[in-house]
Design brief:
Mean pLDDT is about 90; it is low at about 1-5. Strand 10 (about 240-245), helix 9 (about 250-260) and strand 11 (about 265-270) form a beta-alpha-beta unit. The chain has helices spanning about 20-25, 30-35, 95-100, 120-130, 130-150, 165-175, 190-195, 220-230, 250-260, 295-310, 375, 390-400, 425-430, 545-565; strands at about 40-45, 50, 60-75, 80-85, 105-115, 155-160, 180-185, 205-210, 215, 240-245, 265-270, 310-315, 320-325, 330-335, 340-345, 350, 370, 385-390, 405-410, 435-440, 440-445, 455-460, 465-470, 475, 480, 530. The protein contains 14 helices and 26 strands. Helices cover about 25% and strands about 25% of the residues. It has four domains: about 20-150, Jelly Rolls (Sandwich); about 155-230, Glutaredoxin, CATH 3.40.30; about 240-350 and about 480-565, 3-Layer(bba) Sandwich (FAD/NAD(P)-binding domain), CATH 3.50.50.60; about 370-475, FAD/NAD(P)-binding domain, CATH 3.50.50.60.
Length: about 575
Amino acid sequence: MTDHGKTPDLLTQNSSLATRRDQMFPVLTGVQLARLQRYGQRRAIRAGEILAEPGDRGLPMWVVLSGSIEVMQVGMAGETTVVTHTAGRFTGEMSTLRGISSMVRMRVGTDGEALEVDENRLRTIIQTDSELGEIFLRAYILRRVGLIQAQVGDVVLLGSSHSADTLRLQQFLTRNTHPYVYLDVHEDAAARDLQEHFKLKASDLPVVICRGVVALRNPSTEEVAACLGMNQAVDDQRVRDLIVVGAGPAGLAAAVYGSSEGLDVLVLETGTPGGQAGSSSKIENYLGFPTGISGLALAGRALVQAQKFGAEIRTAAPAMRLKCDARPYAIELASGASVRGRCIVLASGVEYRQLSLENAARLLGAGIYYGATPTEARRCRGEEVIVVGGGNSAGQAAVFLAGSSSVVHMLVRANGLADTMSRYLIRRIQETPNIKLHVNTQITALEGTDELERVSWATSSTGAEEILPIRHVFLMTGAVPSTHWLSGCIALNEKAFVMTGPDLKPQHLDADLWSTNRKPEFFETSLPAVFAVGDVRCGSVKRVAAAVGEGSACIQQVHFVLGLEAARP
């Protein structure tokens, strides 16, 4: 399929992006092409020449001067043409900017000439040439969205809508914006064919098939990230200026501001960028988005911004331990490797508190959920659901789920929502007929064998107890800070939140580490050059905007401390 004029391609056929095709595949002007010459190397391209295979890393951007370059999806059934780039067009999508594995094959269609622009020069263009930078970045973002909508990629997920591990892998791929095809073994004939081809047993499920070759049986997120080449291949012996732990709003803000101001920044994320905000269906009170924005979209935009300025984002890389006995500090990863940084920003956030009920942990992902996104909502379409919690996250979840579920029961322990939820959400809940608010009410039992089957709740004000055949419960109750890996290094308060700046007392500060004429900066912890921002910090305001503000403001203090470190003898 040749990309001449307005000829449709795989990414815009039957897609909401059809009207934005000219932005997805723009034709560069002669002036723009001339400006690019100093960033690349001209070279002849010959028909049939392979420029990239799925899995190749660190690929250049090719700007077609004459001839054509074909982009192909490679599957078990053969090749499918995604798009053909002709003169004035350029190759690549978000994996090109990040320097991670390609998902497609690129092959020269007809003889010609192209400009080869490597990854570093491409980033220089995006950072320094506002016109070309906007053209490339917009095209790359739209192409990735197109790949996701068209399910063009190198991943097939075989699983079941009744499986907790299937949901875990769906969440990981979706929130990392990696295109994939999902096949349910109970519903799709193609899934059964693949089971036979790879000789898979029911106990192997879920299975992630990478590039039609490797079948990962119920893999960890780390295994999936490695197979798909989702992270850059870098030298971990390098000492970074700044390591940010956590890619929620606070961590991503620190990464954007730090990298845009010239710092060498590494971001470590356990698995799903966006933190708790990333699991929110819609945030309507975030400044600048009057119609609202999903947590996934907000996190995705922030990730692109950080990568634009050169920050390295490493996903499925949980921090296991902070090594604080020597400078520069080191963070030990689950793989056993360590990364070192002159400064560290702790933005590891919080996790929803689990119910202290029998079966709650066992049924996680099989009826018990801690996020309400389209991935989870598909599992309970047309059914009754329960949302537990009285904060904004619970309110957003209830309103979102009401659009596809028959009834949404909201359970709160308090007398109402006024003390914990924004007024606009309360009004929306009140005006949504299929949301039923139950005050002074708590879940007392969860029952089910392999999946949740029944829920019991009790209302303290009336003494009434009910048992309902409800199979889906969304928990947004309280928060527990993700600080277990900091034990022995950082001063924590009685609830395990990180103490910073004015909250720190003399007894929290080691005299051997702190000089008499320097006190911790506002976001600095009891360990010099280690900062904490966002929900993990004691006393922080638990709002997305506040987290972004803390992450960005913290960088000024990082610069100050780096200056002090540079001046040390």
